[in-house]
Amino acid sequence: MLLATFKLCAGSSYRHVRNMKGLRHQAVLAIGQELNWRALGGPTPGAWINQVRRRGSLLGSQLEDTLYSDQELAYIQQGEEAMQRALGILSNQEGWKRESQQANGDEVLSKVVPDVGKVFRLEVVVDQPMERLYEELVERMETMGEWNPNVKEIKVLQKIGKDTVITHELAAEAAGNLVGPRDFVSVRCTKRRGSMCVLAGMATRFEEMPEQKGVIRAEHGPTCMVLHPLAGSPSKTKLTWLLSIDLKGWLPKTIINQVLSQTQVDFANHLRKRLESSSALEARC
Predict the structure, then answer these.
(1) What metabolic or biological pathway is this protein involved in (predicted)?
(2) Please, which of 4, 22, 109, 285 could form a disulfide with 96 given CB 3.0 to 4.6 Å?
(3) pTM for the model
(4) CATH number of 91's domain
(5) CA angle 152, 157, 159 (to 5 degrees)
(6) Which domain holds residue 86?
(7) Is residue 135 part of a domain?
(8) Do 18 and 11 meet the contact criterion of CB atoms below 8 Å apart?
(9) End-to-end CA distance of the chain, in Å?
């Protein structure tokens, strides 16, 4: 049903159909309704995920007054689906196993998800308000290479509306250069509802960014970060990061698992240092 509806939204192969504004709006609304229906299925999610899924999947209402190209609509739909799939994984509390726990309470969990593979879940509390994390992770996304040594560069290739972007990320070598340079082309979708924010994404294709010589094109599966104020301490933020990556190439699973779980631990530490240094700089100014 969804695929047939989306073909209708794309306008089939007939020019006169593509130019019918009302028809495209109806099809977009239908996509939003079906995404909502899918989001409500499956195991009962936690309260905060349930709230985001209910409010963050209203694709039709967001696109009702704006027309996009067929390719832009495809990217928007892909970002929405990545968010729903990622939140669906997080909402299922069964089967998670602890990979590591740090002295400061940071915890990495993992589980194997059918049709996805092994995913990793980082749970941390950051001693900064959510607004600071949103600014750093969303509004200043392209500066991540300045403070996270695991990332060489992130570049926004295209922005679609207020919620969707296409990005190119060049990752640094890892595990003592056992894992060579990788890059990723992803569609990212951001939803902010009240005091909660979800950043989701997955691999996509972008003609203007072909594979680079000497760099392996890896792929993000459905992945997301969920930010919300810590209960009872609004000046602190609970951050949950679901990570799903296919690094490609010939790599032992033990190496892959070690690299991905350590990447999450390192990210939390680098993010804290970045936020602390930014706060100290602002205080001096």
Answers:
(1) Steroid metabolism; cholesterol metabolism
(2) 109
(3) 0.78
(4) 3.30.530.20
(5) 125
(6) 72-281
(7) yes
(8) yes
(9) 56
